[in-house]
């Protein structure tokens, strides 16, 4: 493994950081989260055309950059540093790989160029499950989370003119603004039970209700999606469970990279504050106790970033790839939570005020733990995937 970034990767990261420093300052982020979309559509199109952010994972024949998981992780880390409200996660990390993996040639040719240009955004609708459970990172990738029989989750029904969906899902990332919904629905009843992905175009489909939810972290908009006998198109022909499990191996390092980027920036802000905040006639950063706390946080952030790079390098659709990704995500979430908590404490009372940026990073850490955790489940399932607690071996040891 060569941990060094190539010149192109370094250039992409520096270009993206410069753009975000110019167009995604704290004031701009606070203003844009109050808009109906919850993100700056103009900035998203700019990022799609200049560094090609929207099409990083799209094949070149469809107008994308054809990059891999590491490039997506680098982009996510920069977005995490700025707490960028954007469809990066929902579109580039979740929607594009699924369309590429499951879509028919006609569906890929129709959707991928628009997704790569930033013209079209997507959202993954998962009823009754957290994202990490559906991706096989915090539980078995068997599709049981989607509901069963004729009730629960979102049900798909075959008709003479196509498919119809009925049900609802909450906490859909960017679901209120996406022009394309990939809906995981249960079909086949008890006898032929399976989970499939369906394309829903909310601007043209009937009986689609999208409600933006009040979220703890305003920089990550969420929505409730209600479908009432809604027209849908089957994405490809295969089951969704396998494709989602494969996606888990590549999505986990990107989620971890975003969390580690946010932790890194929160630590930088805390160090900057410790250098100028004076107590007893000297900067608080000069006190040994504060130095030790900041040094420990620095080591923790660097360890999380190393785990992210390794997981991105080892990303694969295998159980090992998901295990490595789940461990990196657990470490990044834990690091983000610890750094955000320490940042609030070291800032004192100002750290919890709306006017200060530290509270934004604290809310992101708390929200990510709820959306992508909990950490102990990620680690427990990673241990199961890696076979660390094989039941047969444990019984044999007891007998001996």
From TrEMBL:
Domain of life where this protein originates: Bacteria
Chain ranges of the Acyl-CoA dehydrogenase/oxidase C-terminal domain: 253-380
Cofactor(s) needed by this chain: FAD
Keywords on record: FAD, Flavoprotein, Oxidoreductase
Acyl-CoA dehydrogenase/oxidase N-terminal domain span: 6-119
Pfam families documented for this protein: Acyl-CoA_dh_1, Acyl-CoA_dh_N
One example GO MF annotation: acyl-CoA dehydrogenase activity
Entry similarity comment: Belongs to the acyl-CoA dehydrogenase family.
PANTHER family per record: ACYL-COA DEHYDROGENASE, ACYL-COA DEHYDROGENASE FADE28
The protein's name in its UniProt record: Acyl-CoA/acyl-ACP dehydrogenase
Organism: Streptomyces morookaense (Streptoverticillium morookaense)
């Amino acid at each position: 493994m060569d941990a060094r970034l190539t010149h192109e990767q370094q250039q992409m990261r520096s270009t993206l950081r410069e753009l975000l420093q110019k167009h995604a300052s704290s004031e701009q982020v606070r203003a844009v989260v109050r808009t109906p979309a919850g993100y700056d559509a103009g900035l998203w199109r700019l990022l799609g055309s200049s560094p090609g952010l929207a099409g990083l994972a799209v094949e070149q024949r469809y107008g994308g950059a054809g990059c891999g998981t590491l490039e997506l992780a680098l982009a996510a880390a920069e977005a995490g540093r700025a707490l960028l409200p954007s469809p990066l996660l929902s579109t580039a990390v979740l929607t594009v790989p699924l369309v590429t993996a499951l879509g028919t040639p006609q569906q890929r040719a129709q959707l991928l160029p628009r997704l790569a240009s930033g013209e079209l955004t997507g959202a993954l609708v998962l009823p009754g499950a957290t994202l990490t459970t559906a991706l096989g990172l915090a539980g078995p990738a068997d599709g049981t989370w989607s509901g069963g029989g004729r009730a629960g989750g979102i049900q798909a029904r075959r008709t003479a003119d196509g498919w119809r969906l009925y049900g609802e899902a909450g906490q859909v990332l960017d679901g209120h603004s996406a022009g394309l919904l990939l809906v995981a629905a249960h079909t086949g009843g008890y006898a032929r039970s399976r989970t499939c992905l369906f394309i829903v175009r909310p601007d043209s489909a009937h009986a689609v209700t999208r409600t933006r939810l009040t979220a703890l972290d305003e920089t990550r908009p969420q929505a409730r999606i209600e479908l009432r006998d809604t027209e849908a198109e089957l994405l490809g022909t295969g089951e969704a469970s396998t494709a989602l499990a494969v996606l888990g191996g590549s999505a986990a390092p990107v989620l971890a990279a975003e969390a580690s980027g946010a932790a890194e920036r929160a630590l930088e802000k805390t160090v900057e504050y410790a250098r100028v905040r004076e107590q007893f006639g000297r900067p608080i950063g000069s006190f040994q106790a504060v130095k030790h706390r900041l040094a420990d946080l620095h080591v923790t952030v660097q360890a999380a970033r190393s785990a992210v790079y390794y997981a991105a390098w080892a990303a694969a659709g295998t159980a090992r790839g998901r295990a490595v990704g789940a461990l990196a995500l657990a470490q990044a979430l834990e690091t983000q939570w610890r750094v955000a908590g320490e940042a609030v404490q070291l800032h004192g009372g100002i750290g919890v005020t709306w006017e200060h940026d530290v509270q934004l990073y604290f809310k992101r850490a708390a929200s990510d733990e709820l959306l992508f955790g909990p950490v102990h489940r990620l680690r427990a399932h990673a241990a199961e995937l890696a076979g660390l607690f094989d039941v047969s071996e444990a019984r044999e040891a007891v007998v001996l």
